[in-house]
Design brief:
single chain, alpha+beta, 2 domains, five-stranded antiparallel sheet, 12 strands
């Protein structure tokens, strides 16, 4: 189902946001903190949860003009990227102080929303071997389960989308000499099996001059 994974994450992980005026997008910091805490307490070498501000209609980045993290007693600048990724601190005091994140989009006509994305950090072309891909696959699976909480992951596991492996977007078109890897131009899905565990075999590629742009879980439904 198209965008089923994003829809699932939004449904399970969403926290309150609102428009204060035509130019501002405001969201409570505690929702970010709860998700960052899951990553901090887990044993994840590669997997991360990232936060983006996107246009509701197009899902394109809502370019940010400026942003702040505000409490009743203080205000500090918000750090973000050109692609509207929010680089938020993991700060227990901000959570206790009931901080809010206030964002002014460059385009005041944008109707913006949060997007959660499970992605990677420190995973590059040097990790294109079966053992590292298996580890990442298992980290994604564990992180999705942890973020979903006990009620969903244990008692209502049928609601979780089925993760078959990982999906990698490269900087150039590529293919791999492995039947469990399927590519279309720059996007490849890696169907991970238990035989990949502790298997240091490197996956041979048709293009040696590639870099990785994004790695996400591969969800089949």
């Amino acid at each position: 189902m198209k965008n089923s994974y994003i829809v699932f994450l939004v449904a399970v992980l969403a926290f309150i946001s609102k428009t204060v005026n035509a130019k501002e997008f405001v969201v409570s910091y505690d929702g970010f903190y709860d998700r960052l805490k899951v990553v901090e307490k887990g044993n994840f070498e590669f997997a991360r949860v990232n936060f983006y501000i996107v246009d509701i209609a197009t899902l394109e980045p809502c370019k940010i003009k400026k942003g702040e993290i505000v409490t009743e007693r203080s205000s500090s600048p918000l750090t973000y990227t050109s692609q509207a990724q929010l680089l938020l601190p993991y700060d227990k005091q901000l959570d206790k102080d009931k901080a809010v994140v206030v964002i002014e989009p460059e385009n005041p006509n944008h109707d913006c929303q949060l997007k959660f994305q499970i992605e990677t950090e420190h995973f590059g072309v040097q990790n294109l071997n079966k053992a590292d891909i298996y580890q990442l696959h298992m980290e994604f699976d564990e992180l999705l389960s942890d973020l979903s909480g006990f009620f969903v992951s244990k008692l209502m596991s049928f609601l979780l989308p089925e993760q078959k492996g990982i999906k990698i977007t490269f900087t150039h078109p590529v293919s791999f000499a492995d039947e469990q890897v399927q590519c279309a131009q720059m996007s490849c899905t890696f169907e991970v099996s238990d035989t990949w565990q502790d298997n240091s075999q490197k996956l041979n590629t048709s293009n040696a001059n590639i870099n990785i742009e994004q790695v996400t879980p591969w969800i089949s439904k």
